[in-house]
Amino acid sequence: MKAVSLLLVLALCIASGPCTAQVFKACPYEVSIQCPTYDGDFPTFFAHPDDCSKGCECSKGTAFEVQCQPGLLWDDTVDVCNWANQVNCGSRPLPP
User: Fold this and answer.
1) In this predicted structure, what is the pLDDT of residue 17?
2) pLDDT-derived band at 1, boundaries 50, 70, 90
3) What is d(CA 76, CA 51) in angstroms, rounded to the nearest whole number?
4) Angle (CA) 7 12 16, round 5°
5) Which pLDDT value is given to residue 23?
6) How open is the CA angle 56-53-77, to the nearest 5 degrees?
7) Dihedral sign from CA coordinates of 30, 34, 37, 42
8) All residues at 6 or more sequence positions from 65 whose CB lies less than 8 Å from its CB, including other chains
9) Is 85 helix (H, G, I), strand (E, B) or coil?
């Protein structure tokens, strides 16, 4: 059964494109120092200070970037990407 599952995963991987590990980019240190050392039941999020189209998600004391899809911005009031007309970026720069 495990062999069948592995073959299915490999077939899906080949059909959908290259199978590479996702590289996670760390957020600035000033964000990571706010992250809890241990992960709780729910993730901890912060707004990315350098780009309004990104958020930061904490994992084991380090914050990693969450990139919004084109046309969306990080809404730090609800901790998700949201339509640009619904987001107040404050001092966070808009993407180019």
Assistant:
1) 52
2) very low
3) 12
4) 150
5) 79
6) 65
7) negative
8) 24, 25, 26, 27, 48, 54, 55, 56
9) helix
As beta bridge partners, residue 80 has 75
DSSP string, 1-50: -HHHHHHHHHHHHHHHS---PPPPPBPPHHHHTTS-SS--SS--EEE-TT
Q: Which of 59, 57, 92 is nearest to 73 (CA)?
A: 92
Contact 61, 37 (CB under 8 A): yes
Q: What is the pLDDT of residue 7?
A: 39
Interval 33-81: pLDDT, tens: 999 999 999 999 999 999 999 999 999 999 999 999 999 999 999 999 9
- Give me the domains of the chain, ranges plus CATH numbers: 22-96 (2.170.140.10)
Number of residues that make up the chain: 96
- C-alpha 20/C-alpha 84 separation (Å) is 31
pLDDT digits (tens, 9 = 90+) for 9-37: 444 444 445 555 667 999 999 999 999 99
